[in-house]
């Protein structure tokens, strides 16, 4: 698999299990790129939905992708603290065009006080039937929900106290 270089602007492509595009983030700056981990940063980037609608993100964000974990984490920097949006997804791939993954509907929203909510269980059930998610995917996703909850409670990975601040500082140096 290709590895994006630090400072490179890349797109992020989210797909659904049936192979259809779900969402595209126009630009994210690579802050760290290895075979296993990509950390990116963006601010006010255009997002295109599958139906062609577009919108602009409202705040700076640090994005964490892993090639072996079935989730990615978007850390949104807001005035009242850091909010985390965790997508249960396939591990990422990078192919010189974009960071790509399959979105599996389930999400965990984490608030600045580290309380969290599991979201979109109904959407997951509907898409599971509609697109025929195999049982093995269901098991993997449940294991990764549990892993994410452990990371949140243990303040591990992107939930560690200085993670977002350190990567946001690096992002700002690339923007200058």
Automatic annotation (TrEMBL):
Cofactor: Mg(2+)
Broad EC category: hydrolase
Catalysed reactions listed for this entry: a ribonucleoside 5'-triphosphate + H2O = a ribonucleoside 5'-diphosphate + phosphate + H(+); a ribonucleoside 5'-diphosphate + H2O = a ribonucleoside 5'-phosphate + phosphate + H(+)
UniProt xrefs under Pfam families: DUF402 (PF04167)
Domain of life, source organism: Bacteria
Keywords: Hydrolase, Magnesium, Metal-binding
EC number of this enzyme: 3.6.1.15, 3.6.1.6
Entry-linked HAMAP family: Ntdp
Name by which UniProt lists this protein: Nucleoside triphosphate/diphosphate phosphatase
């Amino acid at each position: 698999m290709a590895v994006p270089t630090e400072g490179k602007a890349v797109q992020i492509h989210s797909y659904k299990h049936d192979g259809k595009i779900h969402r595209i983030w126009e630009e994210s700056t690579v802050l760290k790129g290895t075979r296993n981990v990509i950390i990116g940063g963006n601010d006010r980037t255009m997002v295109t939905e599958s139906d062609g609608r577009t919108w602009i993100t409202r705040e700076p964000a640090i994005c964490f992708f892993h090639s072996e974990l079935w989730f990615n984490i978007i850390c949104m920097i807001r005035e009242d603290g850091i909010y985390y949006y965790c997508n249960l997804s396939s591990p990422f791939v990078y192919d010189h065009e974009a960071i790509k993954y399959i979105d599996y509907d389930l999400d965990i929203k984490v608030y600045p006080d580290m309380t969290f909510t599991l979201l979109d269980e109904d959407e997951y059930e509907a898409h599971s039937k509609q697109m025929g998610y195999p049982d093995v995917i269901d098991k993997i996703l449940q294991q990764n929900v549990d892993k994410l909850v452990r990371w949140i409670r243990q303040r591990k990975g992107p939930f560690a106290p200085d993670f977002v601040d350190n990567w946001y500082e690096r992002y700002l140096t690339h923007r200058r």
